[in-house]
Amino acid sequence: MRGPDFYQMRGVAVMARAMVLETSTKDSPEGNLPGRILRSSMEAVRRPLDKAVTLPTRAYTSEEFFRHEVDKVFMRSWLHVGRASQVPNPYDFFTITRFDERIIVVRDKDGVLHALSATCRHRGFPVADGSGNCSKTRGFVCPYHGWAYRADGSLAAAPFMQKGFDASASRLPEFGIDVWQGFIFINFDAAAPKLSPQLKTVDKVMDPFNLSAMGSGPLRRLDWPGNWKAMLDNFTEAYHQPLIHSKTFEPMSPARLAVYEDIDGPYNLYWLPSANGEPFPTLYPPIKGLPERLASSFLVVNIFPYFHMFIDASCIISLDMDIRSANDLRGIWDVHVPAEVAAAPDFEEKTTTFMKLLMPIFDEDEGACREVRYGQRSRFAEQGAFSWMEKSVHQLHSWLADRYLD
Length: 406
Ligand code: FES
Ligand SMILES: [Fe+2]
What we know:
Blueprint: H1 4-27, E1 32-33, E2 37-38, H2 39-43, H3 58-61, H4 63-74, E3 79-83, E4 92-98, E5 101-107, E6 113-117, E7 131-133, E8 140-141, E9 148-149, E10 155-157, E11 174-180, E12 183-187, H5 200-206, E13 214-224, H6 228-234, H7 241-244, E14 259-260, E15 267-273, H8 292-295, E16 297-303, E17 307-311, E18 316-325, E19 328-338, H9 339-343, H10 347-376, H11 391-405
Antiparallel strand pairs: 1-2, 3-12, 4-5, 4-7, 5-6, 6-11, 8-9, 9-10, 11-12, 13-19, 14-15, 15-16, 16-17, 17-18, 18-19
């Protein structure tokens, strides 16, 4: 038992720490990150795993820090926005909103993909919404005063403008775009190096799935009043399995067997082998020609910052995130299977069954994240040490810390 002295001492220590924080906020603003996070706390995340600590909890809870995160991470990273199969033909488009920016993903007349800002260059009315085909001749016509933009973002027409108006100077801002394994990623920083060349090591593992040719279906929506990182942290380690999934997932694939890979790009990857080394049973037909390891292991891959995939020998489930604030996450789970499996009449029924099988595990994970959310708001929350079983979490946190500190 710890006596009252311990708590008194601890209270003094916490007060002293808070005073240091307050003082350094006033005296040395350059020593802090937004959200009253000390740079030194963030730097500690980047140490080698056995000496590192997790991200400061205020990086999860502070809306002020979230604005910093948007600037430093989301405005400069590759963000998943959909599948290339959503826009198979010239002039096909869809729109998506991320971080308060409406983005048009569109194929031009030559079939080249573009990611454009939907904001009209005239007075800001969004020029597109939803999905479909834009006009071959006029592209996207702004509903406010009729300025028309081609699928490459250039201005095709601007009615009633005076002589001398230079249409070529007005085009929709264009973002970076890249397709990796059939997934479309955009980068608000158009000059950012392409994503695909940075994922060559992941390709070596994932190419046998022929993911680009897969068909997709929705699995489940996730609306969660918490921080995206808490959710992703949870899906980035097997360390919690023995307690949180003691009767569901852990017996199938014990956490102690997990293998966490070293990384050479903006991703992490780990294997969850089956308890007995035998192939896992699958709900959809197993994909032909997979290496043996993929049949007897689950595989987890995250593309930083937040695109998550959980893979078995028959399908890939992905979690995309629509992050609205530090404490508002909308998640979308999809399932990807070979095209003929997705086209089969029983695909929907099978997917419903699959979801029912997964539901108890999702419930356990979401329950854990709810508790973490509560605990991270405590005045007494601290950065914790990592287990070797959290190597992938450390990889993610270090990658983020590099950008928060930039
Ligand atoms: S705001 Fe688009 S044409 Fe005026
Ligand atoms: Fe879990």
